[in-house]
Write a structure and sequence with these properties.
The protein is an alpha+beta fold. The protein folds into 2 domains: 150 residues, PAS domain (Beta-Lactamase), CATH 3.30.450.20; 67 residues. The protein has a 4-stranded antiparallel β-sheet. A hairpin with a 2-residue loop joins β3 and β4. The longest helix is centred in the N-terminal third of the chain and has 56 residues. It is rod-shaped and about 160 Å long. This is HAMP domain-containing protein. Pfam families: HAMP. InterPro entries: HAMP_dom.
Length: 270
Amino acid sequence: MNSGVKFKHSLVFKIVGTTFIVYSLVTIIITFYQMYNEFTLTQKRIKNDINIASTTIKTTLIEAMWNVDNELIDVTLSGLVKNPSILGSIVYDSESVLIGKSSSEEVIVENFDLKQINNPFNLNEPTSFNFELIKDKENIGSFVVYSSENLIWDSIKSRYRIIIINKVIEISVLMIVLFFLCRKMLKPLNIILTSVNEISKGNLDTVVVYQSNDEFGRVADSFNKMTQELANIIKTIATVSYNISNATQDMESGNKDISARTHQQSSSLE
């Protein structure tokens, strides 16, 4: 039944709207925290990968530098950049002279410029890690490993999409379920409201047809009892009013009779 209330003013709209706003805000905060946490964990994982890979080849590079084995240096660096977290690496001697370099397939070799100390491979959002090469407490050189913050974004981009899509679906499903649930729960209220409108028009024979053990069921029963009592009171008042009216008419008729008799007796005396 239609209660005559506009949807934007209805309880369903207020409940669903308020829930949507609150739940969306909470979801956005939690989602941003998850995304930040995902970024931080991925950043730590990549740094750990770089540290582990670099530490693993460190002994080999030290021996190659000590024995001036350039071929082994090149092979070692080539193996290092096969790690997906590493885009380039450079080995210097103790005088900071370039000994060897290598880069992954993603790096454009022609863009290499050693003059750009902090970013010789011309990477976007570069980050670097420096490692000293020490043998018998003597510094024989160093090597630098280069990576990029873009690797982090590339790694978590798909997971970000999944997180956002899941949250959108979660909110949509919740709102749809809540909408229909609220409409079903508040339907008895519309029935009662319609009956109240009928009573306001003077129809005391209206009855709320809703049987349930919940609060609305109890309200419907109480409403029907109230309507019945109200109808009985009105009927009682009408009966009393009718009786009073009849008694008044009888009194008026008796008074007329007394007046007529009095007049007749007066005439007889004259």
